[in-house]
Write a structure and sequence with these properties.
Low-confidence stretches: none
Strand content: 15-25%
Pfam family, one: HU-CCDC81_euk_2
Organism: Ciconia maguari
InterPro entries: CCD81, CCDC81_HU_dom_2
Number of domains: 2
Helix content: 25-40%
Order of helices and strands: HHEEEHHEEE
Largest sheet: 6 strands, mixed
Strand order of the largest sheet: 4-3-2-1-5-6
Distance between the termini: 60 Å
Mean pLDDT: 80
Protein name: CCD81 protein
Radius of gyration: 19 Å
Number of strands: 6
Number of helices: 4
Structural class: alpha/beta
């Protein structure tokens, strides 16, 4: 709603900040988005890690943003954050520890973690017959 224009991602700026080529940045971003889209189409649980901010957890049709405590503390100051959490304890549901396993935040215990592309839990496949 509201005629908002999308601004294209400035690959050259990202490449300069990361000290890599524009082509590599474009390939990485497009590859990650393609894989993320594929996982979501298949109904897989996904956690998108936002460095130093928190994580976006997508599980089925449920989407949650969880923030690192130190990020919120930097934004608001320690005293302000403590006051807010004391007044609205439900906000603690939006705070996550950096050391907590991401898979523990899901109902299923399974999640694909982006951008590291690691799987936090993978069920063991059934044994196959050996090929000759």
């Amino acid at each position: 709603p509201g005629n908002k224009e999308l601004e294209p991602l400035k690959y050259a700026k990202v490449a300069a900040a990361a000290s890599v080529s524009r082509r590599k940045v474009e390939g990485c971003i497009q590859g990650t988005m393609s894989l993320l889209s594929h996982c979501l189409r298949k109904g897989q649980n996904v956690a998108l890690i936002l460095k130093d901010i928190g994580l976006l957890l997508i599980e089925g049709t449920k989407v949650q943003m969880k923030f690192y405590y130190d990020f919120l503390e930097r934004l608001s100051g320690k005293q302000n954050l403590e006051k807010v959490i004391f007044k609205v304890p439900q906000l603690l549901d939006m705070v996550v520890s950096r050391v907590l396993p991401v898979a523990s935040l899901t109902f299923s215990g399974r999640v694909i973690i982006f951008p590291k592309l690691e799987t936090a839990f993978v069920p063991k496949p059934p044994p196959r017959a050996l090929l000759k």
